[in-house]
Write a structure and sequence with these properties.
single chain, Ferritin, 5 helices
Length: 165
Amino acid sequence: MEIDSLQKLYVEELKDLYSAEKQIIQALPRMAKKVANPQLRQAFEEHLEVTKKQVERLDQIFERLERSPRGKKCKGMEGLLEEGKEMMQEDMDPEVLDAALISAAQKVEHYEIAGYGTVRAYAQLLGEEVDARLLQQTLDEEGETDKKLTQLAESSINVEAAVEV
């Protein structure tokens, strides 16, 4: 497909985010099972439910645009999640693994924040105000998740990982 307009780029970027979210939905339960810290497990489980709602918002946008969300694989997210998967296969103390998984999760969040910020800006330029509001809602949620992960890391998980046994 030739991408010769901002509208087409907007749709392609939305497809990329849709693929990313679907991959995250597959990865979060595995990550939640691997963590030792119950607060981190709960954060991953809660974000799984938030992510499902984000996919529903993207479905609404695609329905409004009369387009399919399918047809693109987000290779960036695939790479980030593969790194997280590799971490889970390493021989690490549970506290260190929790710190590593926060790192992996924050890389994912920052990727999403960049993507959603971009498509929100495109939506605004294209006059898609309903889409822009939906995308801003997701962008806000991703920022909140990032803040929550930072708080968990700084208040307990990284501290516990720093203690040598």
